[in-house]
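Budget justification, computational time. The allocation requested in the original proposal was used primarily to generate structure tokens for proteins on the priority list. As evidence of use, we reproduce two of the resulting records. The first is shown immediately below.
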Amino acid sequence: MSRNDQVKQLVNSDEHAISAWKLFFSLPILSWALYDFANTIFSSNINTIFFPLFLEHAIGGDAVMNQIASTFISYANATASFFLVIFSPLFGTTIDRTGKKKIWIIWFTLITVAGTLSMGIFAYYQLPGLWFNLPVSLVLVIISFVIAKFFYHSSLVFYDTMISDLATKSQLPLISGFGVAVGYIGTLLGLGVYPFVGEDRYYIAFLLTGALFFLFALPLFFFTKEKKKIQTGAPGSFFSGYKDIAATFKEMKKYKAVFTFMISYFFLNDAISTAIAMMAIYTKAVVGFTTGEFILLYLVSTVSSIIGSFIFGYITKAVGSKKAVLYVGILMCLALLIGSVATAKSMFWVAGSMFGISLGAMWVTSRTYIVELSPENKRGQFFGLFAFSGKVSSIIGPLLYGSITWAFASYGNLASRMAMGSLIIMTFIGILVLLRVKPSRELL
């Protein structure tokens, strides 16, 4: 290569980098990414950290009761996922019929914020009486969590689909990676509530998280635009979307690659969603972390997620979405294996960092692969179906985990290790199914 060619290559590389950063910080894309920032605060603070720690504080106490607390956490997550299974496919068909996404994101975000604030109110005020042999306030916190989690995940069906309105197909991996990276930076801000919470004032975490979610969702409300869709034919009712879904399943041969990946994603997401929900109580009860040590571990995992999501945006563009998802699956399998056998805190620091990288990267690679495999006129429906697949797995995974901890509670911490080991099997199955995905050229 001549010196002039080298200079031209460097100039083109610099121009490409500058162009990418201009793209990232354009107002619509930055506003879209800030919603990832906002909803990740909810996901980390409520789903992963403070709700599990609240239940451990309220129910746990010894090795056996910690397993019972794990079961409550698992079943609460499974309940929210059950309702998502019912509704998420309908959300996808609504997008395809109307093209409307932002209005649904706004309403679902407001309901999520209200549910999160309710968790804080009921955790603070100790109401008299018992429901199902549990304190009324505790039951109301759990119910509020189920509502908040349901509407949080429902908003993501519309939010994820909105990415295709923002840029060209070649830019999607970079934007997806940028959004996830910004999201995990939101996690860092979310962890800032911990000094106000201490060891037992979890209501403060719930109230502050609801406020932060609302605040950082506002840019998307005001500064993003969606492509206008020309309505074709009769709009139909909301529940008529089930007919579209049934018709799509009848065309499985035509969209075989999408459905095969949906099965793979089912198993991969099973491991991810369950591990996220159980991470806090597992590290405290099984590995022996204090609350402060877990917060620090989660901070390190979050930084790993930021790095992983950003790097995997470029890896996906370089090697393709399928190979990128495969690499992430292998990394996640190794992380779960180390975590399930960890006898020292140092081993779990390694596992937590590896899982953090794979977690951030999975959202980047899978979201991009869905866009790559699905036809444009059914993209919203396929995002709904993938949410459907993910939420079915979010029932099965926590139910399996919770049932193992319930059945083997008398064995103490061994029950949790067995439950964590079941996630390795799920990940391995997901990898095997992924290898069978063969994209149809005419649909790309």
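The second record produced under the same allocation is shown here.
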Amino acid sequence: MLLTSKLRRIALNQQGLLKADSFGHGKKATLRAIKQLGYLQIDTISVVERAHHHVVWSRVSNYKPELLEQLVTERQLFEYWFHAASWLPMSDYRFALPRMANNNGERNWFKSCDQKLLQHIIKRIKVEGPLRARDFKDTRHTNSGWWDWKPAKQALEQLFMQGELMVSRRDGFQKVYDLPERVLPDWVDTCMPGLEEYASHLIDNTLRAHGFATFKSMSYLRKGQKLRNAIKEQLVSRLESDLLTSIDLGNNNIVYFNPALLEARTPRSQARVSILSPFDNVIIQRQRVSDIFNFNFQVECYLPEFKRQYGYFSLPILYRDRFVGRIDCKAHRAIKSLEVKSLTIEKQLDANFVDSFHQALLSFSAFNGCQEITFASSCSNDFSSIISRRQN
């Protein structure tokens, strides 16, 4: 029990969630947070503020979306694929090269694209400058569905995944593609990492972001047996040299960490509530969250409505060092109103929770550009009633 409590605080401290504004304020703090996390997942769902903004705001209280845009413009970040579409620190660019080169068992999205079309697109961008998918006409007469992208868009994505094009910026939410030599700063290292160096990067990246990790989480959605073997070999070597130690949490669930981290004094958890994105880095690996926090979480927007238990886009509620519930919200931006569609509190909580949750909800509402909070009639539990009365 004491070990699990310690691990929870380590994980949250590494994630910048154990106390408020641990990365500081403003643009520099935003970059520090993203570097610590290793990546920032991009998401299109906008029932509340999109995940990439939500994740940073949860750690940098004065964060504004324009700060992320500035970092992209300044070439401090670049867009590529992590386990999903993400913004990554530009200093990590070379560690995206193995996926681009497709030499670790990874496959790009489209098995074949017309080579003439690929060359045509590169030539146009070279001559005309950055272009979007809509700058290429669709010559087909039918469209069978959302996934039936026009050939030029498929080709753009293929060139992007191969590293022959980069996303220079987003126009609204549309990608603007350009040649790498016009996007990459002069200082960026573009040397392909060797297999051992790449494996080491994945280990270090995961341990920095989370404090400890299983082999499975270090190789999360990374394909290729050679890479997985290299990660295992690195872990064995680090254990033998005492750079890492390991603990079996039961059922052969082995976590690896720097021994000094477990021995160091971890800050105490504060009586504060964080309303997190369902794509937050701290919760994205569901097995880890279940093992350490005893919290089973699923993003239900991908489920048919009749299978949803907590709502379309329920957000995990973090209090002190535990996940204690979920809240499903929708921002009605035109009328500046945040609707709470459902609220579920799953644990017994201390007397400070209601005040902390109220403040968190007010902050979350303001972050979403809303000036009032309403509760759906289905929100009939005691917490909803208390908070609702405080709005009046």
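A brief technical remark on that second record: The longest strand covers residues 322-332.
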